[in-house]
Design a protein that fits this description.
Helix content: over 70%
Keywords: Cell membrane, Membrane, Transmembrane, Transmembrane helix, Transport
CATH topology: MetI-like fold
CATH class: Mainly Alpha
Pfam families: BPD_transp_1 (PF00528)
InterPro entries: MetI-like, MetI-like_sf
Protein name: ABC transporter permease
Structural class: mainly alpha
Largest sheet: none
Organism: Janthinobacterium tructae
Length: about 290
């Protein structure tokens, strides 16, 4: 009797209704192909350009403050045709390469010496870290007093911006090296110079390249800022003159070029880093 009651009261497992499985939305094929394609990198710039065009078309801001992309393009063409744009751009790039070359070379050498000399590190490290924390822009008035507003001022302010980044990257890379590398050098009876050339320098290449890439981008921003404040030529000075003459189309040309050139420099450094580090990827794939 109990079995009959249980059979009536409790439904069998196979009669228990099952909840329907959640329906998973199928991905849109064209969207998936677009995300995986190389053209997807242009999505955000095109979106920004469309937003800029819409803002000027519907007059979200006054026309004399925010110029349309077409007007900025025409102004850039006029500046390029007159030779003014090429002159300012060439001067800025020369200052960048000179200052970055000086600062990165000094930072690389100083980072190696500081990383390999514990005694020197104990004396220099506090001062190095204090000076590293000083904003480069805050030192512009002091550099103007020391070097004037000539080319030396721009070159040294760029060198300062790149020196500490590269030196810190190299110093940290050497400090993080495994002690086994130096033990191998002792086994082979390497001299100090051989340890630096055959062990230290190859091991710190990835960190040094990353530091130089960051330092180059930072140097470009510092240079344009310095030219805005004190310069008689250069891309930053062109924007400052446009502001004083209320030529905001010239200012927008400088702003767009500053971003494009900075992006190009970063991509060029990234390509160089990838090319020089092929051995590492090949070794990891073995």
């Amino acid at each position: 009797m109990t079995s009959i009651v249980n059979a009536i009261a409790l439904p069998r497992a196979k009669d228990t209704p099952r909840s329907p499985a959640p329906v998973r939305a199928a991905p849109i094929p064209w969207l998936r192909r677009f995300v995986r394609s190389r053209w997807s990198v242009w999505a955000s710039p095109l979106a920004l350009l469309l937003l800029w065009t819409a803002a000027t078309t519907f007059e979200w801001m006054p026309a004399h403050i925010l110029m349309s992309p077409w007007q900025v393009l025409l102004t850039a063409a006029d500046l390029a045709e007159s030779g003014e744009l090429g002159q300012h751009l060439g001067i800025s790039l020369f200052r960048l390469l000179a200052g970055f070359g000086l600062g990165a070379s000094a930072g690389l050498a100083f980072g190696v010496v500081l990383g390999l000399s514990p005694g020197l590190r104990s004396y220099v490290d506090p001062t190095f870290n204090v000076l590293r924390q000083l904003p480069t822009v805050a030192l512009i008035p002091l550099f103007i007093l020391l070097f004037g507003i000539g080319e030396s001022f721009k070159v040294f302010i760029v060198a300062k911006a790149s020196f500490f980044i590269v030196a810190l990257a190299v110093h940290d890379a050497i400090r993080n090296l495994s002690q086994r590398y130096f033990e191998v050098g002792q086994v082979y009876c390497f001299s100090r110079w051989q340890r630096i050339r055959l062990i230290v320098l190859p091991a710190i290449v990835p960190a040094a390249l990353t530091g130089m890439r960051i330092a180059l981008s930072r140097s470009w921003m510092v240079l344009v800022g310095a030219e805005l404040l004190a310069a008689d030529s250069g891309l930053g000075q062109m924007m400052e003159m446009g502001r004083q003459m209320f030529r905001l189309d010239v200012v927008m040309v400088g702003v767009v070029l500053t971003g494009v050139i900075g992006f190009g420099l970063d991509r060029a450094c990234h390509a160089l880093e990838s090319r020089l580090m092929r051995w590492k990827r090949n070794g990891e794939s073995i």
